Please model this.
Amino acid sequence: MDESQSDNTTTSSGALPNESTMTSRRFWQILIAIAVAAIAIRVGFVLGFKRHFALRSDNFVYHYSANLLVEGKGLINPVQYYAKPSVITPMADHPPAYWFYLAAWSLLGVKSILGHQLVTCLLGGVMVVLAGLLGRRLGSQRVGLIAAGLVAVYACLWINDALVMSESLSVVATGLLLLAAYRLLDRPSLGNAALLGLSCGFAALCRAELLLFLPIAALPVLIRIGRQTTPGVRFAVKRTLTLAVVVGVAAGAVMAPWIARNLTSFKEPVYLSTGLGITLAYSNCDETYYGDFLGSFNFYCPGKFVPGQDPSVDDIAFRKKVTTYVSAHKSRVPVVLAARFGRLWNLYRPGQQIEIDALDDRNRKVSLIGLTQYYAMLPFAIGGALLLRRRKESILPLIAIPISTTFAVLLTFGMTRYRVPSDFVICVLAALGANELFGRVRRPRI
Model:
């Protein structure tokens, strides 16, 4: 049997085709099949385990706010509204992208909790396709399909789709952001710079910390492009500044309507959200500095608090209270930060973290599966990053995601679902590392 016959036999048996014989059409066929399988996994989990559950945290706000928005009541606080319909309080607890995603489906008649779960599962298919395209760009078509497969089965990603949370959309935004960054690196142009800016703006409307991608990765990428594409320092600076302006304007254009709405809806200035204050309040108290919840959160931390009519005022009050507490416990801050870091990356009390994550209705068995997969992929992901470094490929866009995630967690508290944009990156890097390792194992020795 010759080599081509061997490749065709491998393909027909269900394994990945040989890279040298895989056509673009075949790549897309397999990628779409993986995306469909990913959606099936997520839908199966929803129907089998999470079809009936109580909305009791951020998912309550996402679900009911989306429906109230479609009913013409605006983006208001559903907790206060259903308690007292005469009280209409504008809300900006989170950036709005996931609200609008759910509202679009509610407008089409998909208004139930189950309906919102199922349409969130569709995002799992989108993130699989994005992982495949990113893996192909960074490695090969085979790497892309491995990355897509990892994203499809990685429990730390698909568990979120059943919870009616914004994490799933934030992973999609991460994929778009990374693809736009590498597209600009490959083909520097004003149009691709604008595309990166639009992606940054959209990502920030999914998760506020993703806006950090601009200073951490986008600016260094633009400086690199300026140096490589123009002769002389003066022209390089001009080129970099031009691209930076385009990126900034495009990102600002996406965020401007939301920011304008917030600046005109609240007493105090609000830009992306009013959620930072209460988040800080949950994670800065004796229970999270000295107790069993070190580095995590505790619902009793804020103490007795009655929300007012204006969330922006409440946000400032929470921040002042937290600042006072932190100032009185400065010596403990390094320990707390280390614990938050450890919880985020499952280096500190991972077993307890599964129990804490269960407060968000995360299934314990699925969380354990995800933890095992995470530990298994992490060495391959590190290998993938080193491989890109050795190839002199820019890895800054990729590592900017874990950096921004870590920054947000150090500021707030450690929780597994805060890591999901980085989990997407881990899958892609692990695909690179695994493909390289298996290639070396299979490569005949001379």
